[in-house]
Amino acid sequence: MGRNRRYFLLFGLGLEFSFKKLAKMGGSASVTAGFEAVGMGIIGFTVGKLLGWPVMDSIFLGACLTISSSTVIIKTFDDLNLMHRNFAGLVFGVLVVEDIIAVTLLVLLGSFVVTQEIDGMQIFYTILKLVFFIMIWFLSGILLIPSLLKKSKKFLTDELLLIVAIAMCFIMVIFSTKVGFSAALGAFVMGSLLSETTKAERIIHLVRPVRDLFGAIFFVSMGMLIELHVISQYIWPILIISTTVIIGKTLVIGTGAYISGNSLKTSLQTGMSLTLIGEFSFIIIALGAKHKAIGEHLYPIIIAVSAITIFISPSLTLFSTKLYNWLYHQFPLRWQERINRYSAEASSLRTVSDWRSVLRTYIINCSVYSVILLALVIGTTSFLFPWLASINFEIGRITSVILTLLIMSPFLWALVLRNQNSQSYRNIYAQNKFKGPIWMMRLIKVLLGVFIIIFLLRRVFSLQVALYAALAILVFLIVFRHWLQKLYDHIEERFITNLHNREIEAQNALDYAEAQKRNAQLGPWDAHMTTFDVPSEASHIIGKTLNELQWRERIGINIALVKRGQISIVNPDRDEKIYPSDKLFIICTDTQEKRMSAILREDKRSLKNTEEVEMKLDKFFVDDNCLLINKSIREADLRNRIHGLVVGIERNGERILNPESDMQLLEGDIVWIVGDKKLLKEPFLRQN
Questions:
Q1: Number of domains in the chain
Q2: Is residue 152 part of a domain?
């Protein structure tokens, strides 16, 4: 019971975590959280030493001050109706990154309290090992867990699903301890994997009472460790540390947010919203107490500091806007202009060069495929080979190597032979001067694949045999590349479908609800009229005539009207073409409506090539290197380039809202624009 309380708490936190949310938040949250971790860690350690505490106590104090309480902050924002405020997204992004930092700290501190020494190489090895296993857990978990839950869907009652979720949690806890990590890490990782499945909301609902029960036991047990005479004895350290948390986090997080490109107002609001410590701090302290690495006084001090900061934090969150308004008006006008100018330049549209995009994809692909292949090598040589060799050594080692290579083959093909097909890659390869570096990158991938093959074969055969076999395997990859590509594409499609299945089901449910809302019944029979909007990404439909589409013959529907902007085409003939954003008025049955919806809806397979369109309000600074300088808004053609709309211009301290399309963009202007978040990153603003 004592240990399980911590596992359920971290499992519940993992269910609220999402790798996709982290990726969506971008770099600002990561920079802010990283700045906080380093800054508050140093401040906490310094305060501990100034209080005369031992080195170990000071280290754990610094670790406790780096993490805020996500549970309390989310509840506070919900109660105060702040969920949709501008700074809320950054706050939640920082909390997500803090969760990763906290789990990393648990692993590092767990290793540190055992060895009692700081070894740079050991820390690097621990972090590398952590990244390796988290990548393996994430990739294998997304590939397997949603599929297993989907196949057993009809058997999963609420009671059975709860048991399965808890069982998965404890399986990962056991596995995590077996590979040398903390049990807390395993519980958190399994929660984060289940959060990406279509059963996430249902699991969260079922697990919440269990988590709350054990969470209450956890916090009560922490409270039982408080001794009033100890608090009175350490009242000054408690007040000093509480003040350090409030002031330190406001300044450090605010500075990190400001440096990462946010406005001064958003930065201050973010900093003052995170001025508290909570559950992860308790878990870190519990780790130190378990190994008797810290003094007994640190327990009640941290708990008291947490209680004080949790009580004060909501008031600080509400007060942050008033404080900003007061501070801003205390600054001289020159300072105000510099603050606004810096914020505009720091958060302006950042161009992403073709080389940067290609290198980023190249590094990610090489890292992911290498991790998968090394995991397969280590797993099979550690378990499969010993088992087969115990039956017959010669036959066993040959069989284990062949089976391992067959499993590895699609990923070896992806690492060695698969090339990027992005527009950035084609732009670079089209230039003769860059073909040399591109071929060098391809050669590095081949050498990396050969190294992994030799690494496998060398564990079983001699080096000479391994070298000859590696060449033979490369020939095999080339000869059977088409078959391997189909196999890999199938695996990748399954992974991407599982990764996005939650969004797909949510969109399907939304489509169905909207279809029900649109339906206008024409009579007592099954036929009714409904409307469909032609999506702009439906390339398999756009530009084709009704005769080519054969909807009436294939499905049995009748198109009564096509509305195209202000034009209405009644009873369109067979030569009428379909264009993006057309509104189709269709007479059909319920079954025909579902079939038509499926035709218009984007295919699941295209998820790996497209992303959800997200509109964003952003700004950019017009300098002498900007391609749009001295051009009118109409000439800039931002509507077609980024699906964007200029909504305002700041010029010489004056704000011009909804500027005319013939207004020129001058040097020194700050241009506010609404556009596709993804396209805002395209390199159309800067000269090469």
A1: 4
A2: yes
Q: What is the pLDDT of residues 174-216, one digit of tens each?
A: 888 887 776 777 887 888 888 888 788 888 888 888 877 877 7
Same domain, 593 and 621: no
Is 511 part of any domain?
no
Q: How do residues 602-651 score in pLDDT, each as one tens digit?
A: 544 444 444 445 566 677 778 777 778 888 888 887 777 776 778 788 88
What's the one-letter identity of residue 443? L
Residue 634 included in any domain? yes
CATH of the domain at 667: 3.30.70.1450
Kindly state the average pLDDT of the residues 653-672: 81
Distances in whole angstroms, Cα of residue 338 to Cα of each of 263, 285, 331, 344, 672: 12, 43, 10, 10, 18
What's the pLDDT tens digit per position in 415-443? 888 877 767 777 777 777 777 888 888 88
* 3-state secondary structure labels for all residues of 272-303: HHCCCCCHHHHHHHHHHHHCCCCCCCHHHHHH
Taking 3-state DSSP, the helix, strand and coil percentages for the chain, each rounded to the nearest 5, stand at 70, 10, 25
558 is in which domain, residue-wise?
517-601
* Side-chain-side CA neighbours of residue 283 (13 Å): 30
CB 670 within 8 A of CB 626: no
pLDDT > 90? residue 48: yes
Residues 551 and 645 in one domain: no
Per-residue pLDDT at 142: 84
For residue 576, give the DSSP letter.
Answer: P
Among 278, 172, 162, residue whose Cα is nearest residue 209:
162
% of the chain surpassing 70 pLDDT: 83
The pLDDT of residue 677 is above 80: no
Question: Pick from 479, 505, 532: which residue ends a domain?
Answer: 479
Residue 369 and residue 475 in one domain: yes
Q: 203: which 2 tokens? A: 């699991």
Is the C-alpha dihedral spanning 197, 202, 208, 211 positive or negative? negative
pTM as predicted? 0.60
651, with CB counted inside 10 A (0-12, 13-18, 19+), is middle
Residues 590, 672 share a domain: no
Of 95, 286, 276, nearest to 184 by C-alpha is 286
Indicate the residue among 544, 566, 601 that finishes a domain: 601
Residue 187, in any domain of the structure: yes
In contact, 55 and 263? CB cutoff 8 Å: no
Outline where 538-671 has alpha helix (H).
Answer: 546-549, 551-554, 590-600, 633-636, 638-642
Same domain? For 363 and 331 the reply is no
Is the pLDDT higher at 520 or at 85? 85
